[in-house]
Structure formats: C-alpha cells, structure tokens
Please model this.
Amino acid sequence: MEREFVSLLDLTFYIDVPDELGLKRRMEREKTTENQKWFEEVTFPEYKKHREPFEKTASIVLSGEDSLDSICKIAVARVREMVSGESRTN
Model:
C-alpha cells in the first residue's frame, strides 16, 4: 500500500538528520533517562531499519542540520518549480 501511494506522488522530500542530532533533539523534548533508553533501544533501531528506502526514493534529500526556514524555502521553491512546469535535477 505504501509504495502504491508513493508512486502517485510527483515530488517527495527526505530530511536527513544525523543520528547524534536526532538523539539530541529528542532529549531536548523528552528529558528523562527512561525516554532516552526507549529511543536508543526501540525507536532508533526501527527508524534506522526503515529510513534507507525513504532516502533512496526521495526526489529531494534535504539536510536536517539546516535551519527549518532554509529547509522550507528549498522545499517551497522546488514545489513552485514543479507547479510552473520547470524541471531541474537534484
């Protein structure tokens, strides 16, 4: 079902966040050691297992180290290009 849905999309984005930064951001939101343990033992291994296919099939890979404003500007520009009929490579 997921692949069928993705095949219908004209443009897909993947935001690549380094493991250390992802853990840091998670711990800023959820400050308990219990949450950190859950992230390291459950959430993160599942994420790692599934992220590669998403990254490989994305039309555009953005850096999660960039500011949210920068990521949004790039994404909006690419959508505008697509809507206006312009085309360019990654």
Notes: The mean pLDDT is 84. Strands lie at 13-16, 60-63. The two ends are 27 Å apart (CA to CA).
